């Protein structure tokens, strides 16, 4: 039986877009803040890309690549992207909104997904969860020659390029805001 989680978690995506628009409206970016924030956001995009190249949704439990460091590299990458854009926007109120949004929704989403993976993979997932942190990545990992390699085809199948496109569009909007509000 899947653990659907609280009903309000269904509002994650529908509330995400207006939250992003509100954060952009509150933003007071400068070229310097955009540069600094973009570095962090780019790191998040790269982590998400690496994770997507190892993830075969509903086919196999991802254990290699970024998944050897954190059980949720996609969400960790998303957090870095959001944090980068919060820095780029130079608004404490917007940064607080982003932090609240992530704290409220993603904690529940990770719990729900953990339950689904535990149901699907049983002891394999339990052993994995016992040795790999939920969110904050560990820096040292034991490597194995049997670890799956990054697959660009899998990255494309998972449509992770949308995150890169979205990040580039957000940087463009922040640059336009910086120029307009100057």
Short description:
Helices cover 65% and strands 0% of the residues. With 182 residues, the chain is mostly helical.
Walk me through the structure.
By secondary structure, the protein is mainly α. It has a single domain, classed as Four Helix Bundle (Hemerythrin (Met), subunit A). It is 65% helix and 0% strand. The protein has 7 helices and no strands. Helix 2 runs antiparallel to helix 7 and helix 3 runs parallel beside helix 7. The mean pLDDT is 90.
Task: Label the overall shape.
Answer: globular
Percent of residues in β-strands: under 5%
Q: Could you give the order of the helices and strands?
A: HHHHHHH
Which CATH-level-2 architecture? Answer: Up-down Bundle
Distance between the termini: 54 Å
Q: Considering DSSP H and I runs of 4 or more, what fraction of the residues is helical? A: 55-70%
At CATH level 3, the topology is Four Helix Bundle (Hemerythrin (Met), subunit A)
Defining key terms:
single chain; 182 residues; mainly alpha; Four Helix Bundle (Hemerythrin (Met), subunit A); globular
List the helices and strands and how they pair.
Layout: H1 12-26, H2 31-52, H3 73-89, H4 92-121, H5 123-131, H6 152-157, H7 161-180
């Amino acid at each position: 039986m899947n653990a659907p989680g609280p009903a309000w978690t269904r509002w994650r995506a529908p509330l995400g877009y207006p939250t992003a628009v509100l954060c952009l409206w509150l933003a007071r970016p400068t070229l310097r803040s955009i540069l600094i924030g973009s570095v962090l956001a780019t790191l998040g995009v790269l982590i998400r890309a690496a994770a997507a190249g190892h993830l075969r949704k509903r086919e196999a439990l991802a254990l290699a690549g970024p998944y050897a460091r954190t059980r949720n590299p996609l969400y960790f990458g998303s957090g870095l992207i959001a944090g980068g854009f919060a820095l780029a926007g130079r608004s404490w109120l917007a940064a607080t909104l982003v932090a609240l949004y992530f704290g409220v929704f993603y904690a529940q989403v990770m719990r729900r997904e953990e339950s689904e993976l535990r149901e699907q993979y049983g002891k394999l997932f339990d052993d994995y969860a016992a040795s790999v942190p939920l969110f904050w990545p560990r820096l040292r990992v034991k490597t194995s020659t049997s670890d799956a390699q990054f697959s660009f085809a899998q990255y494309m199948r998972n449509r992770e390029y949308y995150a890169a496109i979205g990040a580039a569009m957000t940087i463009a909007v922040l640059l336009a805001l910086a120029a307009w509000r100057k």
